[in-house]
Amino acid sequence: MYILILIVSLYSVYLIPSDVYGQQKTSDFLKVKNSILGVSINIPTDWVLVDQGIRKEDPSVGYILFQPHYSSVGSLSINVRNLSFNNMSISYYDQKYQQEDDRFFKINILENSNNTTLAGLPAHSRITNSPVGMGLKIWTLKNNKSYEVSFSSLDKNGFDQYLPVVKQMIDSFKIL
């Protein structure tokens, strides 16, 4: 019992109805706040928190993982990475870290790559396709940290089905 309480308090994730923050209340979304990672996002009420913590393969990255409650077709993750370089540019980050993904997922085919915004900051987005699914990543940098929101789906139909809701989630993403 004590371990569970410690884990929950360590990561400080709260599900709070969005009207608590003075936003337009919809019964379909809840605000999720993680004070350790310094982020918040609105998630649909039929999505669940699946996992959160520190990446074992890279302890400089904290993450939160969500997916639809009744489906394992897709998932949305938030990754916050402490960067080793001060004042890194988006283009340098693209070269250094996103190419690591390309090496790890060698079969990804880039469908789309654009400059955009995330949490009101300059950002970059990519949509990739592979035999194992489709993915959307959007990332930005602030205070020597990268903030990445990723959505992946096992197939194009699932990707297309969830993309409108995922875009609403991404639009609600805030860096605290």
Mean pLDDT: 80
How many whole angstroms does the radius of gyration measure?
16 Å
Large-scale geometry: globular
Unreliably modeled segments: 1-26
CATH topology: Protein Transport Mog1p, Chain A
> What's the assembly state of these chains?
single chain
Class derived from helix and strand content: alpha+beta
> What share of the residues does DSSP label as strand, in percent?
over 45%
Q: Please tell me the CATH architecture by its name.
A: 3-Layer(aba) Sandwich
- CATH top level label: Alpha Beta
Biggest sheet, open or closed, and with what strands and sense? 7 strands, antiparallel
What percent of residues adopt helix (DSSP H or I)?
10-25%
| Helix/strand order, N-terminal first | HEEEEEEHEEEEHE
- Helices, by number, come to 3
First-last Cα distance: 30 Å
Secondary structure tally: strands: 11
Strand order of the largest sheet: 4-5-6-10-9-8-7
CATH homologous superfamily title: Mog1/PsbP, alpha/beta/alpha sandwich
Number of domains: 1
How does this model look, in words?
Mean pLDDT is 80; it is low at 1-26. The chain starts with a helix and ends with a strand. The protein is an alpha+beta fold and 176 residues long. It has helices spanning 2-11, 90-104, 156-172, and strands at residues 13-17, 29-34, 39-44, 47-54, 61-68, 74-82, 109-118, 121-130, 133-142, 145-153, 174-175. The chain contains three helices and eleven strands. Strand 9 (133-142) and strand 10 (145-153) form a beta hairpin. It has one domain: Protein Transport Mog1p, Chain A.
